[in-house]
Amino acid sequence: MDNVESIIIEHLRSIRADISTVKDDVRELKNRLVNLEAGQATMMQHLGHQAGVTAQQHVSYDRIIERIEKIERRLELQ
Fold first, then answer.
1. Quick one: how many helices (H) and strands (E) in the chain?
2. CA-CA distance, 45 to 39, in Å (whole number)?
3. What SS3 class is residue 52?
4. Which residues contact 78 (CB under 8 A, 6 or more apart)?
5. Are 78 and 72 in contact (CB under 8 A)?
6. What are the residue ranges of helices labelled H in the chain?
7. Terminus-to-terminus CA distance in the chain, angstroms?
8. Mean pLDDT, consecutive 10-residue segments, the chain of 78 residues?
9. What is the largest CA-CA distance in the chain?
10. What pLDDT sits at residue 77?
């Protein structure tokens, strides 16, 4: 009976060690996932900023075109 109990205890210790290893692996994977999500969020912010810059450039371009057209009308080039 003692032999059976010691075998069971040995197996339980082995299972406990395996679970501890799995917990460590899951913790590491969670940390890596958080880093990936943070990187993705940063990229999305940069893309949003780039979209804003592009929109501003379009507005500036449109204003320049309007000014050129106004100058052409005054000079009667059209």
1. 1, 0
2. 10
3. helix
4. 69, 72
5. yes
6. 2-74
7. 107
8. 89 97 98 98 97 96 96 88
9. 111
10. 82
